[in-house]
Amino acid sequence: MPNTLARSTDGLWLHQAIARIEADYQRSADTHLIALPLPGFAAAGIDLYLKDESTHPTGSLKHRLARSLFLYALCNGWVRQGSTIVEASSGSTAVSEAYFARLLGLPFVAVMPRSTSAEKIALIEFYGGRCHFVEQAGQVYDAARTIAQDTGGHYMDQFTYAERATDWRGNNNIAESMFHQMQRERHPVPRWIVVGAGTGGTSATIGRYVRYQRHASGVCVADPAGSVFAAYHRCGDAALSAPGSRIEGIGRPRVEPSFIRELVDRMEEVPDTESIAAMRALSALLGRRVGPSTGTNLVAMLRLAEQMRAQGEQGSILSLLCDAGERYLPTYHDAAWVQAQFGCCAAAQERMQALLA
Questions:
Q1: What residues in the chain have per-residue pLDDT under 70?
Q2: Is the dihedral of CA 95, 168, 27, 79 positive or negative?
């Protein structure tokens, strides 16, 4: 039977849309793998690395997710010419989806709490997106569905589709890139890969890839205070709820469908003051600012490294530099704002400096 879609107007637009996304990907280089200079651990045979996801065109790890979500929706026939794209996100996912919506000439609406920072709103609007505000964070899901229904558009729903939109077997996903870049290091197969969880899509992709390739790597999720994921990982009760994280981009008040607990080998719960202290210390170490979720990752990395050193175990630990700190200059990188939101971080800062030294 002939493929009539390929000859229809909708089919032509679909082919052109996928071609634009693939061409955009072809123009982008892979992100860098940074070796952290920590002599105290290196002397014990333990090497730490960060994959720098801040160098994507939209400045964060979520650029990969947005590309995958668009391709998944296009190939499923959910997005057509003129479709309004709607997402429940106040952060980096919305910024990246606005970028791809503009690439395809589609309207984009980000549904977010009214408390969202002006910097994030400005980035979404820079890429042509529109922001719709709700009073409570838990209202974003229903509001996004309603807007998509009212406009005849498509709700991307990153929290449901993040774990399945990416081809976890390879095809240039983040896990394949990590292992390729590690090939010439002294411990090429990481003992641990540390990630945060917002949707859970990254931990699911890496966890599946590790199993598929039969690597002896553990997947550790660094979970900020107030998030539900660590408790869910312990007991498996998907009805659990929590206050929600104050570390932007990771941690959730509810168990999201894309967080697959069976693919996570270990959870590390990280207090907010430690995330902030690690963010500051790593920014000083690298000579450039990083975001708070990268600080959360670093805390978990250092805990694992300490444990390996105490047990006489050698190997590498790999994590993500999720985004650049310039997005957080008026907030997490502002001492007065941090003091008002989290209190004094001095004790955590001293512990972090001792570890890094």
A1: 1-7, 170-172
A2: negative
